[in-house]
Here is the input.
Amino acid sequence: FCGRPLRCQLPRRRLGEGVARPRRRPVSPHLSPGAAGLAACLGGRVARSSGRRRTAGLAERLLVQGMSQRGAEAEALLFPNEFSSRNTWSKISVKPSEDGASDPQASPSIQTKETSERLHFLDWLRLLMVLGVVYAHIAVSGLEGGGGFGQTFLIDDVTLFYYQPYRDFIGAGKYDGVDHGPAPYSNRWICVIRQWCLPLLFWVSGAAIACSYRGGCPRGIDRLAVFTMIGMAFNAGLWFSSPQNKYCHVSHTETPECFGKGLLFDFSICGQGGWWFAILFQMWYTIVLGILMLMNWPMFGVTQGSLRPLWLVLQFFINIVTYGFFIIASGDVCRDHGTVLVELGVLEALFQLLVASNSPGAGQLAWPERLPYRLLHYLMAGVALLQFGAIRYADEFLHIGPAYIAYMCIGFGRFFHLGFLMTFARRGPSGDRAQPLMSSCWPVMLVLFTFVSPSTNWELAGMLTYPFFRSARDRCVYIAGAFVVTFCLDRLSRTVYCRPLPDVLANTSLFLYLFHPVIITVLLQVGCRDVVSVWIGSFLISVLLMCMQVHLCSRTPREAEGAALRAAVTAKPKALGQQISSSASDSESESDVEEGDGPAQPDGGLKRAAAVAE
Here is the structure.
């Protein structure tokens, strides 16, 4: 009923030995739905009427007996106390009587406690970040007017433009004497979300891995590779059906170089960087994410406890070799290779040392218990801030090259690491270890937000992906804003309930990220020239297609019932069912049965098991 076969290894001894059995045992009202389902699987019957109480009581006593015999081991075996972003597990604990002795007239109290839950806020953040990425891609797709812009610099003069002195100033040659109108609102919106959109998206990916990591290499890399190939295949189709000219964007379709030169379209929304950029486009994120998952499995294992902290030495060398390759390959773009590599090495060693203090086998390196655990996360963020913002990878970035790749991978990789480490802190044996520290005086955040808020004047500063300002101070303040937003959202997620994201919208986020270049191109081809209209249209088309997919692929109630019945029948080993059935027949002569109680109906238990499985 949990989607995987149950393997119950209960002690082999006579049923009822060491367990008080009352004359009549109704099912404990403290049973959770998961425990009730387990009782249904073990007994094959569920107590719905007085004639079924004996078998349900036997199944419940067998469960209690096994847990009281093996304690935490059997408890973890039946219902793993593990954090999962996909499943909710129930932890069953046996509460003894107050005097420590068993009461023969009272049933053992079985209490359930939800030790994990799906982090719904991750689904919401992923959807919102994808929508932000799509909006930015539309705004810089080559549209002139309607909210689109392609300038390297743009002043946020939405309000200033309506003052005549300002219009006289910009008409004096700053815009070549041409009245272009005020800057679009999309300029302001992109300037705000650009600061934390992609860092937060990598943080969400790291948090998702922390929810499902059980040791070894992280799962899902194969599926990520399939998504990457699908997205790149559709991007390649768009490029080869266009004029394959980087100067042919949507506002230049009437020029002789572009008009009628494409198979399907006379423009490309992402061809400014050449053919390789048009094919890669948005799928660079999944490629970098897959590389980060492969590179950081030692750190994952040490944090989870399956590897010793000494493995972090290997993690250090993997990261340094990767950084060094891109820094040296950058050539003259990075002027001082040695200084950059030394700074990266020192900060990398410090970060891995902080990770080691977080591991279960840290020993003397363990984080002091007298210090707040949240302080460890703040120190990690401080090291990541210096690596991302303080190091001078280049004077400026004019194109995508090895130095810019190193800058992005190091910075976004640190957000990815923090997402894993901060979310893994929720999985402590005593609950969430990251108790409030700065958030206990949360009004201070108003001051922090004031200091780290980004400017709404647009400056490309390298690439749209993430800016690289000339001043290290500007870079650090800008990146610090991304960390502040991330920590605030993480704390809110630990204290405020978040509603589940509808499945249709969850599927929409994936579909929209993979295929939004196709949808945008089609909408521009049919004549849409407004950024907000194209953005909303892309989202609505994706939602409509996902609704159609759910409707066409969903099972009918009869099919769902049949699948659940088959799963309930085949998932349970027959040995336990026979053992309980034989024990039930042996105990009928020992238990008092009220008059009028008929034999238990196996069909009812089977139907109930099917319902629990579904």
